Amino acid sequence: MTKKVNIPFEERPQGSTDVMWRYSQNPVIGRYAIPTSNSIFNSAVVPFEDGFAGVFRCDNKAVQMNIFAGFSKDGINWDINHEPIEMVAGNTDMIESDYKYDPRVTWIEDRYWVTWCNGYHGPTIGIAYTFDFKTFHQCENAFLPFNRNGVLFPEKINGKYAMLSRPSDNGHTPFGDIYISYSPDMKYWGEHRCVMKVTPFELSAWQCTKIGAGSVPIKTEEGWLEFYHGVINTCNGFRYSMGAAILDLEDPSKVLYRTQPYLLAPAAPYELAGDVPNVVFPCAALSDGEKIAVYYGAADTVVGMAFAYQQELIDFIKENSI
Amino acid sequence: MTKKVNIPFEERPQGSTDVMWRYSQNPVIGRYAIPTSNSIFNSAVVPFEDGFAGVFRCDNKAVQMNIFAGFSKDGINWDINHEPIEMVAGNTDMIESDYKYDPRVTWIEDRYWVTWCNGYHGPTIGIAYTFDFKTFHQCENAFLPFNRNGVLFPEKINGKYAMLSRPSDNGHTPFGDIYISYSPDMKYWGEHRCVMKVTPFELSAWQCTKIGAGSVPIKTEEGWLEFYHGVINTCNGFRYSMGAAILDLEDPSKVLYRTQPYLLAPAAPYELAGDVPNVVFPCAALSDGEKIAVYYGAADTVVGMAFAYQQELIDFIKENSI
Amino acid sequence: MTKKVNIPFEERPQGSTDVMWRYSQNPVIGRYAIPTSNSIFNSAVVPFEDGFAGVFRCDNKAVQMNIFAGFSKDGINWDINHEPIEMVAGNTDMIESDYKYDPRVTWIEDRYWVTWCNGYHGPTIGIAYTFDFKTFHQCENAFLPFNRNGVLFPEKINGKYAMLSRPSDNGHTPFGDIYISYSPDMKYWGEHRCVMKVTPFELSAWQCTKIGAGSVPIKTEEGWLEFYHGVINTCNGFRYSMGAAILDLEDPSKVLYRTQPYLLAPAAPYELAGDVPNVVFPCAALSDGEKIAVYYGAADTVVGMAFAYQQELIDFIKENSI
Amino acid sequence: MTKKVNIPFEERPQGSTDVMWRYSQNPVIGRYAIPTSNSIFNSAVVPFEDGFAGVFRCDNKAVQMNIFAGFSKDGINWDINHEPIEMVAGNTDMIESDYKYDPRVTWIEDRYWVTWCNGYHGPTIGIAYTFDFKTFHQCENAFLPFNRNGVLFPEKINGKYAMLSRPSDNGHTPFGDIYISYSPDMKYWGEHRCVMKVTPFELSAWQCTKIGAGSVPIKTEEGWLEFYHGVINTCNGFRYSMGAAILDLEDPSKVLYRTQPYLLAPAAPYELAGDVPNVVFPCAALSDGEKIAVYYGAADTVVGMAFAYQQELIDFIKENSI
Amino acid sequence: MTKKVNIPFEERPQGSTDVMWRYSQNPVIGRYAIPTSNSIFNSAVVPFEDGFAGVFRCDNKAVQMNIFAGFSKDGINWDINHEPIEMVAGNTDMIESDYKYDPRVTWIEDRYWVTWCNGYHGPTIGIAYTFDFKTFHQCENAFLPFNRNGVLFPEKINGKYAMLSRPSDNGHTPFGDIYISYSPDMKYWGEHRCVMKVTPFELSAWQCTKIGAGSVPIKTEEGWLEFYHGVINTCNGFRYSMGAAILDLEDPSKVLYRTQPYLLAPAAPYELAGDVPNVVFPCAALSDGEKIAVYYGAADTVVGMAFAYQQELIDFIKENSI
Amino acid sequence: MTKKVNIPFEERPQGSTDVMWRYSQNPVIGRYAIPTSNSIFNSAVVPFEDGFAGVFRCDNKAVQMNIFAGFSKDGINWDINHEPIEMVAGNTDMIESDYKYDPRVTWIEDRYWVTWCNGYHGPTIGIAYTFDFKTFHQCENAFLPFNRNGVLFPEKINGKYAMLSRPSDNGHTPFGDIYISYSPDMKYWGEHRCVMKVTPFELSAWQCTKIGAGSVPIKTEEGWLEFYHGVINTCNGFRYSMGAAILDLEDPSKVLYRTQPYLLAPAAPYELAGDVPNVVFPCAALSDGEKIAVYYGAADTVVGMAFAYQQELIDFIKENSI
Predict the structure, then answer these.
(1) Domain annotation covers residue D6
(2) For the whole model, what pTM was predicted?
């Protein structure tokens, strides 16, 4: 992810001192961007060929959840397929899904890996690989239900694949912490460790109800840079904001730093109103080593982008860590 | 309802392919349209004399719920009485109500019938008739509490009055299906049958939590055309959308077709924000046999309108049926 | 019900001053009284031929709920059929049931009528008649779901059948009041009136959460004598006790008297422990005009009996009325 | 409070007949008014020197709640300190707080008193005094947890300090009434009396779930004029509106008048959308004896102002009293 | 309390090694010990004249809660008045109560003080004094609602009355910790401090949901010996057990020792079954300096006793402290 | 497990026709069988040397949950160690546990394997092996939290270890189905498949809320014989009963037969009353090929035994299958 690509970016607005700022043309993908869609949000983007490819959550007008491939030259203007991804068998024949949502994508070694929330008697983590974003090979679900927000590391750690995830229940889960699990083969998973838990209300209320991994971690000299979401339960429902953590490169179950303040919280109109008001939900981040572009779902309705300078952001995380 | 009247209508916007579209001048009735009102929504309209009459839910600034008569030449510009409807005895002397809300109106044989959610030790279905929208004769409540969304068919079926309704509980009911009941005399009701249930989440999530009848059914050659609302329970509350079904003419407990996608879901600003965000709630539909105009409550605050071409809509329902 | 029959009875125990007392041989029907039963409780008894007949709730060992006919010479020793009642069509062809439980029985004019909680997309009130307790003719459900504890009066009132019932929700309903409804024909029901509501906690806590009609009312000079159950919600669940009310003969929606203290509350071992601890639930009462025998379900597991002197009981109700 | 000060004010808009109206330049304080703030709302203002001082709830970007002093010449343009108030010992050494929010301020006799919701093993009422809005002396918490919305009267009553408050629980309390308590010394409190309870849903639904004192009461000839908030629990969460009551001058536990309609309910965009949608929450009121200016939190995000003519408002309250 | 009285006692059963053991003749007071009672439990006992007096919670058969005086020569055989205590004005004229339950009694200086859970718009702590257990003078409620388990210390501490209590909510509170408050005059209360909180589930699960003070503290050289109840929330409801703590003599908000294991948990039949199964709830303790007798409510139905040797108990608490 | 051992057994009582019957000397292990125990239940037994060994859940009097080894000559009279099992590192160094409960034990190939509910940031499945029931080697937890009732098959299936388990949430989970997972090495797990789900209420209510694997499956010619528990949610809490299923030998995710009626449900006094009333919870079964002995926890307090003839039981399951 950190190879030099020409990532989409916009400089910090004049007068702003924020470490992360919104794209002035947000939302970059509207709710009706494909003919059948009710909403497009919580989607993943990765450098591909001479531009970018993505896997997008497009809920249709029956509010069925599915994931769609898309392509872009600049990371901002997207052609999203009108038909959802159809899976072929990867390391399993069981490739059924009641629904698919909240995809993440990363390149590992020789191919692209997609993870998503996969409906198999409840939400769990689906896995597939693709070489071309045309044919996708579905693998065994990583875990038993109930789980959400499965995010792969972009390289093996100590010789094994590593995945962040958030064990859940079968509804609008009112709790949730981030764990890491390892696999030798993308089929069997174990060595589960707790990575990050919710914070005490008094310490950092925006992430006191539940948290979940967001983007595929970005490798930096300081450690793995991970954007995640945190939730506070107000009297009028959940409010989702974005923070970031830096995990140890060798043992990413160790949190080195973690933002006490949020980086981005719902405040723009397209974040405050929509199918689910007050949601900022990061699912992907691009880095060229200097600049960072984050893709996030807004109000469970559209896709927005936010930007940061990587070193400045890392400094901010370290200086504002819990 | 299907007699040729000059119904309010606006052609489909250029570039739109939607089978149903919003009126460009929405909302047609604002929240403060009468001096005492906090909000006006979930209201019913019917052809009357050389124009239209309606029964409107106007919550006052004490947030007391009541129904008011109103009149219009064109179905769009309304004069709503400043005083609520006062009932006189119909087939009963018990005409008390703790509150009245969500009215529907239809002509049957020789008079107009109004049904509404009537507060009698909880919500149940109130019934009244009027010849002139001046004097209203209240009849026995159709059912025991707890019930909401009682909607009469515009003619007798097999010699009996027929009513759709949604059995409920005494709060913000988190379940609800549509039933039909019959009466020989608008006083005693029976032959209760289940008509439509909520859908599996995977199949059509916008209507997976509860559904309720909306408009008085429109008689067509294909069957009874019924607009209804469906609800999904998001982590930030209920979201109400509109769909449609076609019921068998002879036995309307049989659902012939029913939309898997919604027809209209909250997306306009006046639907996304208001006293109850994310509500589209149809209570009336006008048809001249070719065009259809639907009146719906938006965000429990104002009244909006949406339009369709009848045959195209029927085709859509049949092609997109569950 | 008040004709002179030789009802089962046992005198008040020496030393007791209670107005109602338990049968010393309780429980009269054990949980395994028929080969398939897990529990037999909440059952109804009526004079029949030269003895008694009954309709019994026998949950089987799959914990499926159904009703069974039974016969007894003395009202205490019972032969309960090993097969549940199979219905034939009465005034309807819709005689399906997901489950049947909590029956009541009464004679009206020329036949025996049975009501019970009938599973039709949730609990509602099933109705059937029989002449011989062999063939049962099922009629239309009285009401839409959700309803429980439907109890018929033993004669028409003002020319109409009258039924008490308790509107409910679709689970372990945490509320419930008693209503009355009327029918000209046992098919269509209306004229619904609220009869009795739960009491304020401070006034009579045993009946502050929900109440429901129990026995078929007994006609007395003072009014209709009705045994009912009341529920308090303790920190360890619902506790069901028995009280009694006297309703106006002409207009039984008027409560003349109603016990502030309970008549019988869970205290015997077979009431305190069982499938649902702490339940006393009356479903039938026999009277010869002087003595009264009540049949009640105990701990949702077995059937118990309790006795009273009718005049003394009426005096007690009047003197201890709310 | 009623001394002649030059309070901020704007005349009623042309065409409006509302007894209270919003400031045309709302919100007067934006969510990012100080560098660290996520939101500034539910704040208190009092005349101070030749202008005004205030105590402001500023949640920072970790969503930690704290109170900040601020100053203004005109009551509209504010300089809010960038650092929260640091307390010194008043009548106690226990001046710890897990959090501080929703301050109120009043002058009594010789100093300014601040009350707020103080985090001590849950929310309770914190008390402090200041002479200069620079040094604040924290006193004993008034009550055991759990309590919110503690509001002092601006003078002693019968020789004792008097405080309104709302006993709560430890979460998003779904109930709440207003009580009064007295203290001889701002350290020990007693003589607790219930003042106002929520209203029946049918009578005034906007205040049927919970109510809480808002502004420091204004002494008028008619009694203590108190702005308070009321809450209705919609299917999409709590909606907070503003009403007013007049309490007896001698015995303020007696409510003389209380508005059945609300005075101001969420309708402006900054009230409908924000961190908690649909909140109007008064915390302070200025009066010059003729005009009134109310400061209220909007959507738990910003501060708005609303105005009224005092005598007209009092007449309105008396004429529209429950 | 620690003066030499001839307290009721029974030696430890042979073979037992328990530090606290049940009286072999339990329950000492049955549920029907007075004519009107449904249950007698959670009651308080104190040395009086040449024997003992007590204040008893007797719920009547309407399940109304009230407190009754009673007398005993030996502390085991009791004469409980058949009429509840009627209060006269103490330091207030407001002596109304919606209900009274769970009394405690202690001698301080010149009179006996009774505290109980007093119904005033919800549960709070009522206070009264008596010289003779015939005339009781009711004082101001100590706190705002909602509170339960108010227990006075038997002497002033630093010149002030001191009371333990447990802030609650208005239902079957699922949380609860023990606080202390002080009063110069039994009228105004303040200086509230948290004393003991629930334990982590892993550390001591029987007291992980809520705890509450039980007996009036016994003064010992080691500190104040306090019996309290702890609650675990099982899948079938709350289970109440008894533990003990030793509080600092000078500053009883400091817990010196506290039992990790319970001292007594529901295991006897009269503790396992009754109106509320699985409850052991201490409300009083007698000590002669060597032996201790505890009175506790069992299953919210009857009164039991348990015994211990004081020094052995103190050693046990110290050795098994958290 | 099916090798010829002399298993504990008692013939069916005279007059009984039950396919499974209780041991007449139940409970076989009392709640205080070791000095520190509050309760001993939900425990596992396996043939060992010339008798039996077991792993027992003994909650101590702080209600801390832990597992203890025990030994018996006859399977009925047990010596349980007074100290809990202390783990040494198996295939991991992470051998911490917040608590351990509900063990199961089986022999696979060369050693005994123990699984249990292991507290690691919530309940998950712990694994250990032992050769001698003295030294236990703890391995990686099988799954992420939240999971309960992990039960190993007694031999590898298709070359892999196989485990049944029940994904849960972090409280008194109100749902739960049985899944199977596979592992090549007891460290990494995958190939998760749903095996059995709860039944519709109408079909078999005793298992309609949640189900969980009980005993280590017994290999028979008909398939794997598995005893499991099923739960119904009554208005007074969960009721746990025992049923049995036969799973396909080759692919145990296929259920061949499953009992519609329960085999054993709470009815004996020690099952109806205790720390958690109404619990029958099987955790182990011994078979000599002809006779079967099941060990089950009763009321979360003691251990009971029940017996069956294997072939008769299998015939019963096949004849009474859903």
Answers:
(1) no
(2) 0.97
